Amino acid sequence: MHITMIGAGYVGLVSGACFADFGHDVICVDNNPAKIEALNKGEIPIYEPGLSELVLKNVREGRLSFTTNLGEAVQETNAAFIAVGTPSRRGDGHADLSYVYAAANELAQNLKGYTVIVDKSTVPVGTGDEVEKIIRETNPDADFDVASNPEFLREGAAISDFKRPDRIVIGVETERAADVMREIYRPLYLNQAPILMTSRRTAELTKYAANAFLATKITFINEMADLCEKVGANVQDVARGIGLDNRIGSKFLHAGPGYGGSCFPKDTLALIKTAQEYEAPSRIVEAVVEVNESRKSAMADKIIAACGGSVKGKTIALLGLTFKPNTDDMRDAPSIVIAQRLQQAGATIKAYDPEGVEQAKQVLTNIDYAPDPYSCLEGADAVAIITEWDAFRALDLKRVKTLLKSPTLIDLRNIYRPDEMQRQGFHYVSVGRSNS
Ligand code: NAD
Ligand code: UDX
Question: Ligand 2 centre from 323 Cα, in Å?
Fold first, then answer.
């Protein structure tokens, strides 16, 4: 199959490289010339484990290429995937579909022969209808179908999620489009990945429902963590105790500083908007968004409390800034709110992140960025672990103690054991666990 992938970001680049690795011919198109230039030089513009090797291998073997020229890319294509960003629209929380519609417009002018246009971006219900309308109006002679194929990969585990998905959801309105999509995903049929063929609108909504449900699960356990702290219970044991029930499942029950990232925050907001528009308000998701928002600043307050009630004039070291480990993505990372609130309370911030510093510098200013975890701690009054990078799981605690002015460690990801930390002489504060 010949595939065009429009948008070479986290989703487009990973999907393009994986489709090429299945044996398809893939051209990735991006309208950011610097990105394409870098990719053509073999440089990968994002940090995603294993991606560099996968891209280089498929380029070398002639199945993957990059261009800014959409017209050339779609000449022979069987399917053109739209994998551009759908951020929150400023002011109202709706998904900003301008990038999707711009891509559809450009595609319309360049289609040759039967092509399936596939929305891989996360888009509100009805976007497929709108894309179809745009193409029909711009190019009445075009021979095409529009399908929805939402992506469920997680950053940091993107390649294995794409190649071994729990399921693939495909929303199609014609058998002809279904045939093309089946052929594209044939290698995964052989892996026995369940493929759900649904209507286009159902596929669009399924993506939002999945993200909102996962965000709800995290928010639920975060509230249980707060309760655990009050009643002297342990949230990790509660999570295990409920998660072993197959009806609940153990994943996405890690209490922490609130969910962040490029998807959950914007997708929950967009779902709320859609639900309101269709007069079927999603009150649960509305509560999830509100609780998660307030949690981030509550985590800054937790750090302040651990420092004796004030951080004025103090230096706080933050370990981990990205919204989760194994990515350089800072979009809606809880660290942003936490760092800014600590600064407002008079603290000086030092920070270290293994991969996210360049992106962090664009959103977090007046921060002393350290080159490694230990120099980050030097002279700080307290350290807070915000993101659970593996590099922070086995710190040399004796060294940590000698570097800090006072041995205060706030662990917002529960990667250390309270009893052990106490034994080592730390004032240790974690999430949803009493210190005994
Ligand atoms: P991204 O911002 O990393 O990448 C989008 C890319 O599209 C950019 O490189 C941009 O230059 C390019 N682009 C924008 N308009 C274009 C156009 N008209 N023509 C060509 N290129 C264009 O975004 P992302 O994180 O990959 O997300 C893409 C979509 O996938 C979003 O809808 C998102 O919600 C969804 N999604 C993301 C993830 C994730 O983990 N990041 C997971 C599942 C779904
Ligand atoms: C998410 C969805 O999981 C994925 O299916 C979708 O395609 C894109 O959005 P991603 O944002 O990459 O993926 O990361 P994910 O692992 O889901 O984590 C999202 C946020 O939730 C992170 O801030 C993470 O720290 C937080 N989280 C996750 C928790 O706080 N506790 C958990 O148990 C799980």
Answer: 8
Report yes or no on 222 lying in a domain.
no
Q: Is residue 125 part of a domain?
A: yes
pLDDT digits (tens, 9 = 90+) for 153-190: 999 999 999 999 999 999 999 999 999 999 999 988 77
75 found inside a domain? yes
Ligand 1 contacts (CB < 6 A) are 6-12, 29-32, 35, 83-86, 99, 102-103, 121-122, 151, 153, 155, 262-263
- Among 171, 198, 225, the domain-final residue is 198
Q: pTM of the prediction?
A: 0.97
Q: Which residue out of 18, 228, 263, 307 is catalytically annotated?
A: 263
Residues 38, 223: Cα–Cα separation, whole Å = 44
Whose Cα sits closest to atom 16 in ligand 2?
Answer: 154
Neighbours of 146 (CB within 10 A): 27
Q: Are 105 and 243 contained in the same domain?
A: no
Q: What gap in Å lies between CA 28 and CA 15, rounded to an integer?
A: 10
Q: Is 376 a catalytic residue?
A: no
51 with 162, same domain: the answer is yes
Domain containing 273 equals 235-429
In angstroms, the CA 276 to CA 79 distance is 33
Q: In the chain, how many H helices and how many E strands?
A: 18, 14
- Are the C-beta atoms of 47 and 355 separated by less than 8 Å? yes
Q: Which residue owns the Cα nearest ligand 2 atom 33? A: 252
Chain-centroid distance, C-alpha 145: 29
| Residue range 190-227, pLDDT digits in tens | 778 899 999 999 999 999 999 999 999 999 999 999 99
